[in-house]
Amino acid sequence: MSIPQHISERKGPRSSKDLDPEVLDFLNTGQTETRNLIEWLAVDQQVLLRLTLDQIDNYKWYPTFVEAITQIKKPSANSLTRVIGETLGIQTQDEGIYQKLIDHTSDVVRCWACWAQSLHHDDTAELLKAMKGYAADSHFGVREVVIFATKERLIDDLDTAINILSGWTASEDENVRRYAVEVLRPVGVWTKKIADFQDNPSRGLPLIEPLKEDSSKYVRDSVANWINDAAKSDPDWAQDLIADWTSKSDSKETAYIAKRGLRSLK
After folding, report:
1. Among the four 21, 22, 97, 142, which has the fewest Cβ within 10 Å?
2. Which CATH architecture group holds 157-266?
């Protein structure tokens, strides 16, 4: 089914009261991606789930999902996404099914797949290999969910994670470079703090040093946020790092990171 131009080229609503019922129908049936957080929060995930299970010929699983959903203590869009994804991961490891979900038009369905597949890999290297496609996803929501799905496990094997992700900083894909920094931010947003980086932020240099002149604002923002996080527990380290970087580079990219990276100290 083709998507009408006014749907495919729409801008995201400024508030929930601006949500177009027609757009919501396309979102709930998985025919289009969400444009912003307001649309993402508005998706009826259970409606979408029923249709998706039908598409993969496994509607018989639906009662299991309902049981898991009813046990959520503090229901929210985030918790629902996680529980649906983890329930899916328990139900199947069928790569054929996951390929359909990874290729799905709906970013919400791809978020479920991310949570599900994250359960299938105990080894850090295998986990990151499986998650790299989600880190590179074109949609902001999937790129955030892959951080939630992996950060705590990477903290538990921090040296291995740093070693692998430092290589990702050379990726041609700005989304992959950004993930390498963002997933291991010392504080981050709505994620577990990394005490090792708060105590010794220099351990994270292999993740941010290669990106101090990155051409992508998306990546530079993450590098600056990483330094800003570190500055909260070790301001001298952050100031010394920025002084070192700016003494070696007069690029506008480094200047941008320097200004944002020390913003909490200003």
Report:
1. 21
2. Alpha Horseshoe (1.25)
Q: Please enumerate in sequence order all residues whose Cβ is within 8 A of that of 1, keeping only pairs 6 or more positions apart, or say none.
A: 31
CA neighbor of 46 nearest in space, from 109, 101, 90, 114: 109
Type of residue found at 110:
R
Query: Long-range contact list for 200-207, CB < 8 A, 24+ apart?
Result: 201/230, 201/233, 201/234, 201/237, 201/238, 202/237, 203/158, 203/162, 204/162, 204/230, 206/162, 206/163, 206/166, 206/169, 207/162, 207/165, 207/166, 207/169, 207/180, 207/181
Q: Which two tokens stand for residue 133?
A: 């496609």
DSSP string, 33-57: ---SHHHHHH--HHHHHHHHHHHTT
The number of angstroms, rounded, from the C-alpha of 29 to the middle of its chain's C-alpha atoms is 23
Q: pTM of the full predicted structure?
A: 0.94
pLDDT at 1: 61
Cα–Cα distances in angstroms (integers) from residue 156 to residues 26, 161, 189, in the given order = 40, 9, 18
CA–CA separation, 227 and 75 (whole Å):
33
Residue 266: pLDDT over 90: no
Residue 191 · residue 218 · CB < 8 Å: no
Q: How far is the C-alpha of 1 from the C-alpha of 139, rounded, in Å? A: 21
145: closest CA among 106, 172, 196?
106
Q: How far is CA 251 from the centre of its chain?
A: 29
- Location of structure tokens 């351990």: 203
Predicted confidence (pLDDT) per residue in 243-265, tens digit: 999 999 999 999 999 999 999 99
